[in-house]
């Protein structure tokens, strides 16, 4: 019997194996652009319904084994997906689709949808659009001007970045107006680090120190795509972390096929975008400004050729930039991988400033069988930044920009003598050359981000699928900051005789989500998707700053001083959410979604109370109905969406903090004074509930001429209720400096328009262009305390400040004019527009450029105010200025300027060498520039900068920043 069984089995295999071999066919061919005939590189070719796939090579060729009777799916960014029977495949032509209707967009924790079925406006940025033109120092900096509804401001141009991104206007007054960042399912910290220099500079708060925010650690070259959920109607599924929107980042992953090795080298340099300018003195103007005794000193320096331009001396460097990237990717039908190693070394426009980032990434995906697959994303980053003595100050002798304006005379010789001794500044509080050469201001970051996901398909029937997914990860970083001011520095000799501040911050963020996902075909072309699950977040941080003054000579050790101070801030945040959502799709004609999230948090007054955040949306694809007969319009979609999100109070708002005190020599706890974290004697509120946003969004989308032209029209109204804010106008006799309130409502209204087109497409020219236009108004609807000046959002009303008044915009700027608090400007732009172009010339050349136009938006130019007080502003000899001095005649209103500009954000020209070379597949060389041209009437460094960092209102006030830089690059890219 055994022999009979073996013989029978052998016979069966002899019959089956030829049939199996016969059922597999090899399909090969070339994929080209349907209009130009140009071969398309990197097109994904997959056997539909399986994981078998490949990519086209440099000549557009592909080869794949496919079962008989199967279908091949061809997909490529910017082109419509194409399904072809394997038997009929061979050479394939793909049609351009600038509307990307077949693009799958991630819209929730475990949900995605075709763009043609979206009910919200979701901005997407591909890797090509993000870094394909030029290299960006940081992720947020690379996003400038590339999305509707997004406003970006920099606190200055110091290497390493400090950028504020705001989606659809103001979301909070005291909290973070920055969106939630998620990378491969991991919630990423984007905190701004303080370094303690405010204690020495006299700045009002740590956020004025010019430190970076942590999203700058992410290597832009690792990113495959970015999707931005701008409003509450799209972001509601993320609950209390999503009040300012959500940025979903997907990094690059491997693909089935041969292993691909890519190496890219960029060489460039930084140079200042714009000098504010210096006054050109004569003997007469020296006498009128500084007195007759200064005239012979000036004339002697002039006659000896010793008139210096200290602005150019400080900011005139051309900093070298080296950016190297090596990636390896590939895999088989079971396991795919992507590895990237990169190093960026960037020198600033001022000596002893620069930024370095070293990044390693490994992404792995493994499919155990048809049911179970897992994925891992690992990223290690080490970065260092040397920012120099920059940031705002109150005449503490630290900031070179502040003391350059108030006041450093260009005939002062501030350079060291032959013994290395620096002279004292005779007008400013310090010698700015000494500060540049001897003050240290640095940070070092070690960061590890680990993400993981698992998916199990429990049931896979023809009409019903049930799968379980879980994902999460951790984001851990250790940040070290160091500030050193020698005891020989001019201001320090008269005050604390040297200063050292050494900070150490440890931050750990954990998150995980678990969901059950159901897909059900109910018949009659009705498909139902349901997802139900939970989300858990835990964020902890420990920030310590140790400071020493009264240093021993030439010592930088914390122990080598005679006066010590320690500042520590511990935070712990914990949140838990329950989520449910369902989508019903009738034949891609009507798509309806409804969902709700319940969140609780230890940042709320009742940590066990759940708050509900619902969402609902409806999209109607009118052009998909049978009655539609307009052939030129292949998409006409009407959409409407509603959603709610929230934002809990900042850690510490629920309670009144205590600090060490001593009464009669007896130690104890009492109310603290203003400390390192601007944590003053605050009266907490133990009953706080989250701020909430309710948004209604509506729009219409069109696609014409088979995707050659696309148009998106969106309008929205977002009401933010019960904003939480510190109110400082309370009697000091109460024993408190401020109290926490939440009786503030505001409304954001806006319009967004995006027009995409492929106006020329032939064998010589293929031109894709996108024009974006957007506007937003944020108005104060309710204010329980009357008008007030927000804490930490400006200076005294003598010099101008942000100001909150019911009935005015939340971005108002105000000043005291003749004893009356008067609105003098609005920091929000009237509107913004960007124009992005990709032009392929004669198959081998690629020209790309991005223009960005910001219309309106007032800027309080306090750099000019300082230089007016110092007597060094370039136009002080203008007769009109002499007759009407700005401050004396108009007060702070004399320094409000229109921040309108038109800027060439990016431009690049690349050549793909057409010849085949044995040892590599592709050689691409090019040149590019970033921020190389700005057209503006603004008279200081940059109308985009703001003194107050990424949190709060954070725009419209400039105080002698580190100037912004233009960047120029030469690129070489090899593919093996």
Automatic annotation (TrEMBL):
GO terms for biological process: siderophore transmembrane transport. Keywords: Cell outer membrane, Membrane, Receptor, Signal, TonB box, Transmembrane, Transmembrane beta strand, Transport. Its main location: membrane. Residues 433-780 form the TonB-dependent receptor-like beta-barrel domain. It is found in: Cell outer membrane. NCBIfam families: OMP_RagA_SusC, SusC_RagA_signa. This is SusC/RagA family TonB-linked outer membrane protein. The lineage of its organism: Bacteria, Pseudomonadati, Bacteroidota, Flavobacteriia, Flavobacteriales.
């Amino acid at each position: 019997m055994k022999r009979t069984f073996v013989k029978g089995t052998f016979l069966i295999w002899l019959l089956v194996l030829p049939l199996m071999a016969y059922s597999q066919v090899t399909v090969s061919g070339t994929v080209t652009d349907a209009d130009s005939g140009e071969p398309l590189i990197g097109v994904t070719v997959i056997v539909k319904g399986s994981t078998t796939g490949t990519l086209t090579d440099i000549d557009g060729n592909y080869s794949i084994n496919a079962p008989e009777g199967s279908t091949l799916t061809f997909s490529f960014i910017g082109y419509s997906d194409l399904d072809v029977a394997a038997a009929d495949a061979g050479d394939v032509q793909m049609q351009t689709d600038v509307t990307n209707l077949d693009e799958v967009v991630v819209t929730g924790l475990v949900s995605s949808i075709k763009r043609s079925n979206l009910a919200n406006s979701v901005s997407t940025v591909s890797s090509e659009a993000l870094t394909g033109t030029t290299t960006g120092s940081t992720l947020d900096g690379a996003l400038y001007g590339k999305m509707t509804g997004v406003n970006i401001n920099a606190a200055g141009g110091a290497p390493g970045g400090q950028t504020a991104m705001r989606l659809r206007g103001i979301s909070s007054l005291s909290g973070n107006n920055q969106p939630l960042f998620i990378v491969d399912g991991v919630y990423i910290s984007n905190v701004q680090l303080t370094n303690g220099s405010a204690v020495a500079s006299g700045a009002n708060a740590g956020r004025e120190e010019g430190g970076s925010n942590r999203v700058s650690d992410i290597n832009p070259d690792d990113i495959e795509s970015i999707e931005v959920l701008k409003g509450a109607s799209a972001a509601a599924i993320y609950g209390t972390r999503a009040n300012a929107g959500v940025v979903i980042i997907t990094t690059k992953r491997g693909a089935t096929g041969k292993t691909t090795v890519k190496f890219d080298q960029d060489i460039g340099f930084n140079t200042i975008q714009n000098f504010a300018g210096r006054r050109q003195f004569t003997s007469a103007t020296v006498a009128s400004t500084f007195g007759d005794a200064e005239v012979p000193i000036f004339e002697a320096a002039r006659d000896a050729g010793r008139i210096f331009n200290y602005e150019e001396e400080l900011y005139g460097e051309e900093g070298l930039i080296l950016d190297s990237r090596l990636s390896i990717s590939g895999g088989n039908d079971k396991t795919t991988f992507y590895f990237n190693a990169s190093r960026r070394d960037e020198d600033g426009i001022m000596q002893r400033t620069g930024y370095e980032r070293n990044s390693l990434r490994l992404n792995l995906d493994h499919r155990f069988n048809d049911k179970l697959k897992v994925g891992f994303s690992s990223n290690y980053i080490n970065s260092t930044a040397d920012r120099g003595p920059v940031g705002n100050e109150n005449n503490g002798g630290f900031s070179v920009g502040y003391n350059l304006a108030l006041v450093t005379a260009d005939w002062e010789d501030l350079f060291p003598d032959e013994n290395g001794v620096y002279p004292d500044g005779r007008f400013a509080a310090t010698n700015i050359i000494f500060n540049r050469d001897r003050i240290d201001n640095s940070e070092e970051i070690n960061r590890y981000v680990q993400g993981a996901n698992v998916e199990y398909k429990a049931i896979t029937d023809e009409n019903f699928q049930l799968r379980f997914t879980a994902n999460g990860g951790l984001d851990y970083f250790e940040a070290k900051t160091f500030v050193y001011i020698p005891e020989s520095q001019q201001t320090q000799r008269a005050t604390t005789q040297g200063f050292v501040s050494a900070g150490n911050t440890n931050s750990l963020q954990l998150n995980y989500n678990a969901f059950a996902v159901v897909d059900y075909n109910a018949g009659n072309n009705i498909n139902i998707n349901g997802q139900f699950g939970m989300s858990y977040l835990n964020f902890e941080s420990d920030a310590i700053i140790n400071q020493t003054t009264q240093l021993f000579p030439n010592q930088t050790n914390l122990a080598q001083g005679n006066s010590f101070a320690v500042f520590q801030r511990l935070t712990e945040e914990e949140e838990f959410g329950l989520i449910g959502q369902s989508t019903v799709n009738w034949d891609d004609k009507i798509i309806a979604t409804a969902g709700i999230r319940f969140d609780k948090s230890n940042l709320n007054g009742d940590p066990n109370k759940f708050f509900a955040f619902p969402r609902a949306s409806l999209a109607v694809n009118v052009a998909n109905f049978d009655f539609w007969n307009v052939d030129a319009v292949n998409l006409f979609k009407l959409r409407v969406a509603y959603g709610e999100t929230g934002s809990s109070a900042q850690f510490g708002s629920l309670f009144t903090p205590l600090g060490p005190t001593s009464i009669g020599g007896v130690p104890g706890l009492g109310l603290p004074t203003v400390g390192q974290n601007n944590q003053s004697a605050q009266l907490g509120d133990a009953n706080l509930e989250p701020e909430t946003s309710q948004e209604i969004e509506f729009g219409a989308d069109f696609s014409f001429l088979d995707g050659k032209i696309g148009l998106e029209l969106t309008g929205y109204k977002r009401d933010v209720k019960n904003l939480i804010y510190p109110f400082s106008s309370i009697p000091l006799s109460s024993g408190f400096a401020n109290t926490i309130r939440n009786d503030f409502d505001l409304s954001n209204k806006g319009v967004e328009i995006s027009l995409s087109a492929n106006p020329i497409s032939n064998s010589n020219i293929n031109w894709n262009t996108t024009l974006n236009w957007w506007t937003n108004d944020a108005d104060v609807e309710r204010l329980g305390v009357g008008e007030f000046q927000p804490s930490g959002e400006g200076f005294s009303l003598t010099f101008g400040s942000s100001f909150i008044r019911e009935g005015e915009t939340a971005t108002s700027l105000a000043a005291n004019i003749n004893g009356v608090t008067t609105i003098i400007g609005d920091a929000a732009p009237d509107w913004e527009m960007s124009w992005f172009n990709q032009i392929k010339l004669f198959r081998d050349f690629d020209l790309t450029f991005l223009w960005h136009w910001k219309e309106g938006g007032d800027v309080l130019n306090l750099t000019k105010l300082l230089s007016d007080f110092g007597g060094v502003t370039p136009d002080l000899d203008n007769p009109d200025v002499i007759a009407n001095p700005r401050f004396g005649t108009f007060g702070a209103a004399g320094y409000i300027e229109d921040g309108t500009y038109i800027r060439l954000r990016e431009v690049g020209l690349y050549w793909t060498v057409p010849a085949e070379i044995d040892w590599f597949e592709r050689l691409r060389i090019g040149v590019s520039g970033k921020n190389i041209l700005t057209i503006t009437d603004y008279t200081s460094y940059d109308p985009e900068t703001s003194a107050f960092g990424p949190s709060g209102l954070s725009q419209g006030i400039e105080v002698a920043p580190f100037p912004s830089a233009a960047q120029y690059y030469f690129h070489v890219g090899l593919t093996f």
